[in-house]
Amino acid sequence: MEINSKVNHWVELAEMDIPVMDHLFEAGDYHYSLFIGHLILEKILKAHFIKKNFETPPRTHDLTRLASQTGLEFKEQQIKFLIIANSFNIEAKYPEEKLSFYKTCKKNLLWKTFKKLRTCSHG
To answer: Is the pLDDT at 117 greater than 80, yes or no?
Structure first.
């Protein structure tokens, strides 16, 4: 598969996840919505990784690690957001963390984060 096809593949996968993230958020499944949001960001970063490095991205879910290897410039607040978004993957996936994460996922607290995920996934 050529580079552009690989990039497009990751972008298409991310775009397919956006309605899922939206649906889960609207249904009140905030923790899963944020988990999918993390996956969307991961896929977009992996697409940028391929564009820069012309190789398969590393098998990692660490957004800050991926971001540092994309060649893109990130502002400090964007890196802070990626650090926060990293927790959506870990805390939504592992049982020992899931209950505590689930309890903190309240709509009024997460609306700003969700809007940032929507912005990042479309931009």
So the answer is: no
Class in CATH terms, 3-122:
mainly alpha
Tell me what pLDDT residue 7 has.
94
Mean pLDDT of 102-107: 56
| Amino acid at site 62 | D
Across 20-32, average pLDDT: 88
Relative orientation angle of helices 76-93 and 107-122, to the nearest 10 degrees: 120
Distance CA 53, CA 57 (A): 8
Element (H, E) at 64: helix 63-68
Q: How far is CA 4 from CA 8, 9, 34, 45, 49, in A?
A: 6, 8, 28, 14, 12
From residue 1, alpha-carbon distances to 4, 6, 8, 50, 118 in Å are 8, 6, 11, 12, 29
